[in-house]
C-alpha cells in the first residue's frame, strides 16, 4: 500500500454526493489523477434517471462495489482522519498521506438522536443501522416512533407486525413534506388501503401561517429508496388492529430506562400518556458528519453544516463540500431552499465537480440551473409525491392562497399562488402535472385569467400554455 499519494482531485465519501462529484470530474478531466476516499467498499450511484421537467428528475439509487466505479477514478477504502490545509494534505486512518490540489468533502450526515447514548434508542441511516432495526423488531411487540419527517413516515406505513406509538409535535403527519390536507389524504392509506377513487373536488382557500393553530457505526452511505422493502422488517405480532397510534401535538417529557425486561424503556409524554416499549426509533433528523480534524477553522451554517458558496467552495482555499455535510450559504434563488435529500446531494456533488475542474483550468463558471427551483420526487404512503418550489408556502407569510384538487385515494394537487403566480406545488399520485407546474413556477406567468380552471380535471391545462 502506497503511503504517500499525490492527486489533483481528492473526494471524501462514497455516498451520492461524493460519487457524482468524482464522476463529473472524471468526465471533464479523465487524464487527471482523481481519488475517491470512502469508508465503505460499497458506494452509491444514480441509475434509471428519468427527467420529469427541466431540472426535476426521478431516479433510483444503486449500491455497487467501489471497484466498479468509472475507471478513471482511483478508489481508496479508508477513513479521513485529518486535513492539513496549509500543506494541502490529508491523513487517513490506515496511515496514508494524500497530497491534493483540490479536495471535496462529502462525508454526509448522521442521525441526530433524542438521547444518543441510550441503548434502547436507535436511529436509521445506513445498512448497518437498518440491520440493527431488523434484529430488534423481530423480538419486539411495541415501539415508539419519534419525529415527523421522511423516515418516521416510511416506518409508520411500511413496517408491520408491531405496535407503533408515533409521537409527533405537529397536528398532522409527515409535516416535513406535506400540509394538513395532504396528510389527511395519506391517512386513509394508514388505515384502509383499497378504497375506491371518488369524484374530484376543487377548493380555493386563503391561507395564513399565523392562522394555523399548528400547521452505532453510522458511517456508511445513507440508505437507498425502498430500503424497507429490500430488507424484511417485520415484527412478530399478528393481526394487531390499528397498529399505529398517533400522538398529535405531543412531545417527550421524560425517558425512563426501566428494570422491566418486558418493556425496558418508557416514555412519558406531554399529553399525559406513558409508553412502555421495547425500543424507540428516533427519526429526528440529521446532523452533518464532521468526523475528522482540520488545521484551519471552517465557517459553519446554523445547522452545523460546512458553509459553501454557489460554487460549493468552503472558506478554506481549494476545499469544497457537497451533500448532507454542507450548508448552502449563497444568496439562494427565490424558489430554492436546502433539504438534505438525494436530489440535492447529487446536484451539489456534480456542481462541486464542475467547480473543481474550473478552478484547475482557471475558468469562470456560474451555478447550475437546477438551483433555481426546489424539486423533489419521492414515494410516501404508496403514492408518488412531487414537491416543487415553495410547496408549503415556506417564507411567504400570509400573502399566499392555495388551490387544491383532491380525488380521494387517487391524487392530491396543491398549487401555492401569490398574486396569481405559481410559487410552489404538491403533486401526489400520477398527476402528469410535473413539467407544466415547473414551467409555471419558473416563468411566473399570471394565472389570474384562468381562475380555478387551472386545476379543473376536465381541462388539460397543458393545452392552455402550448
Ligand atoms: C432511511 C433513509 C431514507 C432516505 N430516503 C430518501 C428518499 O427517499 N429520497 C431522498 O431524496 N433522500 C432520502 N434520504 C436522504 C438521502 O439519503 C441523503 O440526503 C443523501 O444520501 C446524502 O448523500 P451524501 O453523499 O451527502 O451522504 P451519505 O450518503 O451519508 O454518504 C457519506 C459517505 O461518506 C462516508 N464517510 C463519512 N465519513 C468519512 C470519513 N471520515 N472518511 C471516509 N469516508 C467517510 C460514508 O461512509 C458515506 O459513504 C434518506 C435517508 C435515509 C437515512
Ligand atoms: N422520502 C424521502 O424523501 C425521505 C427523505 N429522508 C431524508 O433523510 C434524512 C433523515 O430523515 P428524518 O430523520 O426523518 O429527518 P427529517 O428532517 O425528515 O425529520 C425530522 C423530524 O423530527 C422532528 N424532530 C426533531 N427533533 C425532535 C425532537 N427532539 N423531538 C421530537 N421530534 C423532533 C422534526 O420536527 P421539526 O422539524 O419540527 O423540528 C421533524 O418532524 C432527512 O434529510 C430526510 O429528508 C428520509 C426518509 C425518506
Automatic annotation (TrEMBL):
Its cofactor is FAD. Residues 9-193, 243-349 form the FAD/NAD(P)-binding domain. InterPro entries: FAD-bd_OxRdtase, FAD/NAD-bd_sf, FAD/NAD-binding_dom, FAD/NAD-linked_Rdtase_dimer_sf. Keywords: FAD, Flavoprotein. Pfam families: Pyr_redox_2. One of its GO terms (molecular function) is oxidoreductase activity. Belongs to the class-I pyridine nucleotide-disulfide oxidoreductase family. PYROXD1 subfamily. This is Pyridine nucleotide-disulfide oxidoreductase domain-containing protein 1. It comes from Hermetia illucens.
